[in-house]
Amino acid sequence: MKDMIKSLLSLQERDLELDRWRGEHLAIPAKISGLKSDIQAAKTALEDAKKDMMQLQLAKKQKELDLDAQEAAIRKHSTELNAVKTNDAYRALLGEIEKAKEEKSRLEDQILQLMEQSDQAVRVWKEKEAASKSDEVVLHKQISDWEAKQKELEQTIAAKEAEREQAFSGLPKNLADSYKKLRTGYRGAAVVPIRKEQCSGCHMKVSQNLINEVRRGQKLMTCESCSRIVYLEEAIVA
What was the pLDDT predicted at 84? Predict the structure, then answer.
């Protein structure tokens, strides 16, 4: 029985190792996807920054056109002053000129504000562009590394699966079936030691009779609570 337990433990070690590698392999697509999302998010942020910059520039351009229109109106009304024949018409033109000057002053203030905002937007866009290019190189390198790791794990898993199947096929059929069923049910260790009168798989106390039977080593014994195959570490080492 000692040799059988050792064979099972050797097989289980291979299986647990494969579990870890498969877990790593399964996690890689999400990591790659996350990195690609980071790249896309950076591109979107850069595009948004560029849109903000262009919108401010367009708004400034429109205000400049509006300013030109007010300046033209001031010139036009100023010329018309020389042609009016009544005081009412004269006062009306002065009112229009004053209104245009007030609008001109307001537009000039808005243009100055938009110039400051536009300059800031340009700086933000340039900073994001520089950071995006630098970050994208790093992120693409990380993606490449994960893809290489993925292929490496695929090769390792394939090779270890072949070794594992060879070890598994060497077990008696009834034992192989029991082991396979336990592995499927618990998704982990199917063969566990008894420690301090407890099954280390389910941590339930086992009977003294079970411990005695395991110590005799005449047949494989299973935990009375979880049905895992149990053994005594000192018996395996001895």
Answer: 87
